[in-house]
Write a structure and sequence with these properties.
This protein is mainly alpha-helical. It has one domain: Ferritin (Up-down Bundle). The chain is 70% helix and 0% strand. It has five helices and no strands. Helix 3 packs antiparallel against helix 4.
């Protein structure tokens, strides 16, 4: 078993934090996908989840090799994010995607901070960072599209019936 001295003690913490944020994002996307009205958005969030799960698979052995303990489930912050998504559903798909975007921005920030800090994980960190940028690009474009749509992503029960009814 690998032992760590004081200078090495913080090395796996960076990866453990990234993995915790990935677990939070994965669970938040799972909850969000269950509440989105548009199936295209659900499919995209499932693709995001596949990315998060791949990142976790890539970071787990590196974290263990550095003497860290990969987290096994979302933390309290992740549970709060789930609640945020559930509350955001009152704003329809638009609100849900904005909540997901806030989570993705936090994860991208963590990846950007991790770049260059852990040589053993640089390839995995760079891939995770690129994926997060791609996720944010999609989220921003989709939210802009929804915001310019006639009903702005409000839930179907809030859409007035067509005239003539």
């Amino acid at each position: 078993m690998a032992t760590r001295n004081d200078t090495d003690a913080g090395r796996p913490r960076l990866l453990e934090r990234l993995m915790t944020l990935e677990l939070d994002a994965d669970e938040t996307c799972r909850v969000a996908a269950e509440h989105l009205a548009d199936p295209r958005y659900q499919e995209q969030l499932q693709a995001f989840r596949a990315d998060y799960q791949r990142h976790l698979r890539e970071l787990t052995p590196i974290t263990r090799q550095l003497g860290g303990q990969p987290p096994g489930r979302p933390d309290l912050r992740g549970r709060l994010e789930e609640g945020r998504v559930l509350f955001a559903q009152l704003g329809g798909d638009d609100g849900i995607l904005k909540a997901i975007r806030a989570n993705a921005e936090k994860l991208l920030e963590a990846y950007e901070q991790a770049l260059g800090q852990e040589p053993a994980a640089q390839e995995a960190i760079a891939r995770g960072c690129a994926d997060q940028r791609r996720h944010l690009d999609w989220l921003n474009a989709t939210i802009r599209t929804i915001e310019t749509a006639p009903h702005r992503g409000v839930p179907p029960w809030n859409i007035p019936p067509p005239s003539g009814f």
